[in-house]
Amino acid sequence: MFFSGDPTARKRVDLGGRSNKERDRQALLDKTREDRRRRLGLRLQNSSATKIQKCFRGKRDLELARAEVRGNFCSTFGEHCQRVDLNSFGANSDFLRQFLFFFNAKRDSDIAILSQVCNLLLEYVKHGGDALSLFGGINYSSVESLVVHRVKKLALICVQTVHQKRHDWGSQLLMPSERTENPSALLLETVACLINPKLPWNCKVVAYLQQRKIYCLFRGIIVSIPQAARNLQHHNSTSALEQVLMLIASHIGHDPCFCPVVDPRWSFSSQLLSIPFLWHRLPHFKKVFSANGLSKYYIHQIACFLPSCADVLPNDISSNHPGYACVLANVLEAATWILSEPKLASETAADIIAVCTSLLDALPTITSPTGNVEVEAVGSICAFLHVTFDTLPAERIMTGLAYRTEIVPALWNFIKRCNENQSWPQFSKFVPSLPADSVGWLLPVSVFCPIYKHMLKIIDNGEFYEQEKPLSLKDLKSLVFILKKALWELLWVIPAHAPPAKKVVPNPSGLKKLSIENVKIRARIGLSELLAQLQDWNNRLPFTSSNDFYSQQATSENFVSQAILGNTRASEIIKLAPFLAPFTSRVKIFTSQLANSRQSTTSHSALTRHRFKIRRNRLLEDAFDQLSMLSEEDLKGPIRVVFVNEHGVEEAGIDGGGIFKDFMENITRAAFDVQYGLFKETADHLLYPNPGSGLVHEQHLQYFHFLGSLLGKAIYEGILVDLPFATFFLSKLKHKYNFLNDLPSLDPELYRHLLFLKHYNGDISQLELYFVIVNNEYGEQSEEELLPGGRDIRVTNENVITYIHLVANHRLNYQIRPQSTHFLRGFQQLIPNEWINMFNEHEIQVLISGSLESLDIDDLRANTNYSGGYHPDHELIDIFWEVLKSFNSENQKKFLKAGVPGMEEEDEERLPTSATCMNLLKLPPYRTKERLERKLLYAINSEAGFDLS
């Protein structure tokens, strides 16, 4: 090293901030930590090696001990049990002790010995021997624990052996139990013998088997049975496998059992009911499961683990067979058989519905093409519910399905996908109770429609339009199209009458075939009612075009002509599903019916013409006194009116129909005026019966009957009257029941309050509401119970929905029932229910008051007759129609009060005058358009009465 010239020693600085001592200390700590970890790992390795060696030595010693005991056993009893007798089964014998110790289900020689043991036992029992004395001798009580232990082990190894050899013995597993040459049948029949309900150890043995996960073993056995074996025709007698399952299931589900509760993961319901097509694999076992009481127990067991079914149910079959879908399908198929039994208790069916509806919630929304598992599940659900609807109270079932399940969106997704794919499955392949000749959409549609229809009665406008529950508004458009197409096919394409009844051939499952005609009838009714209800919703606030409800085939003139003829398929469609035809087509049919009725009435009463004098200042009273005495036939006949003015003088004019029109307009204006007290109006100025009309008029119900006949007469004669009725009241003309979503048209504030209660998240009982309602009529308040004892029934979160619908029912139906009933009776004297049912409430309002749209001047001109020198091409006539077309709708309405045909007047200074008694318009020859317009406006607004002309 060379000298640098600097004699001083410079101090070195560590820029890391730590001294060498600190660095050495950290390295020492790291090394110590690593050594400690290495020593711990070494100790774990040594400990693990010790345990492995110990386990190996234990297994080796056990195998050596078993081999030694097996050798001693063969020396004592023979390799094939040649030296075994009945005494060998006793408690003091080493026979069972040694055999149960060395037995290994993987050794064929041990299985051969087990078969000999089982054969000896069964032969003894079949010849009248007693298993209790065979195992326990005469002093069973003193050796009970030993005997029970041996029986438990023997029963378990029999099942374990069948499970071990299930792939080799698969084709034998469903053989009849009598064929004991089959080793599987021999072993399983031995298990059945050991768990005989008459034996004292029965409960303990069954409990032991359950604790050892016996259902997992049975699941593996059942699933391994090949399809070819299941298809063999040897199902007339019960297999040994089914016998064992019957005994175990019956013991747990039927008898007073003290077996400890088993883990839900290893239970009967989770392990066996989740096997796909279980009842097709074990048809005889299904009968036992469906027995009244047994199925109820296991259905309750399912309900207990429903909240965590994803963690409880096995998924060892395939992703195409989810456990909850298989449980649902198996329960529903069994339920269909249950409901075909005449002695069925409604409680059992109710429990089935509760479980099935909960399982439906677990089904995911499927967007892929429909598979066999989904088709089987949907078919089983629909078949079960179809039978249930005929068995239990429909209201109870529908409410449960609507409130507690997602069945509506689930079925809709299935129906929508099938429609989009243009492929409907054949449910008869999976639902033996369904005839093979039924169309694919028939069964799901027949179940979907009544449930969704009931749901639409329950939900409110916010849920339907804003939250779009349960279906989106976009889906509703598709739904209308699908249902309309299906209904038309049922009513027009598919023959209405069933073919001759065929003899029903029983099937292996014991199910009775569903009547295809019953399914069709339910589908027809459900489709028509649901579409009518959807049309009502669409009328409130459109979610699709009104034309979407019309069937293209029902718009033709040929269809209308057939409907007018009656007793045709077209007329049947108009009765059941009038909304399939456009409004204009139905009006043609309706006017034809009216014309035929008027013609028939005129021919029978040609000489009878009623003429009444009506005082203008006593219009309603005179009309009520005279017209209310007329019979139904007289009301349909011609009625002529003579007005008497306030001076007692008869007004001029001959009633050729025009005066009667004026009479109808004036009397309806007076009678339906809210000031008269028979009717009230909503916030939108729509009329409905006054619930307190009895406080105003003593004969109020007779007046309602009279007013009903007046309205019927107006429609019967084609006279439009300006009476804007509330929709919920027009529903009464169709015998319809009003629901919660109709309440906004009567009392929007009450509707908002009820919705507040419906969606209230707190404790409703704290609001101190009771099942009573307060009526307030003319300042008099009265309290009325909504239910018997309602004053003492508090509204809670559990019964608030009932309270809401009872309040709506009280306001919309109950309060006005007497008035509506009498009004309807009068109305039906002239307009039969069959006629008015062709129209919905909004269309009925058009029949009563006409359309709010402007007058169709071109149509009016095409139907006008001319005389007195006028003709269609006359210059003044062209000017007249041009002026009339320029009027606003209000003036056009006023013009219609004058007659349509015309007659000439020479003096152009005169006003146009109307001879309404003869439906005539007297039009002077005006020279200019301006003068005609000015004079015509003055005339129609003068309201001068009949004396002007």
Automatic annotation (TrEMBL):
Q: Which Pfam families does its entry note? A: HECT (PF00632)
Q: Which InterPro entries match?
A: E3A/B/C-like, HECT_dom, Hect_E3_ubiquitin_ligase
Q: Which GO terms describe its biological process?
A: protein polyubiquitination; ubiquitin-dependent protein catabolic process
* Catalysis: reaction(s): S-ubiquitinyl-[E2 ubiquitin-conjugating enzyme]-L-cysteine + [acceptor protein]-L-lysine = [E2 ubiquitin-conjugating enzyme]-L-cysteine + N(6)-ubiquitinyl-[acceptor protein]-L-lysine
Question: Which parts of the sequence belong to the HECT domain?
Answer: 631-949
- Into which EC class is this enzyme placed? transferase
- For whether the record's keyword set contains Nucleotidyltransferase, the answer is no
Role this protein plays? Probable E3 ubiquitin-protein ligase which mediates ubiquitination and subsequent proteasomal degradation of target proteins.
* Record protein name field: HECT-type E3 ubiquitin transferase
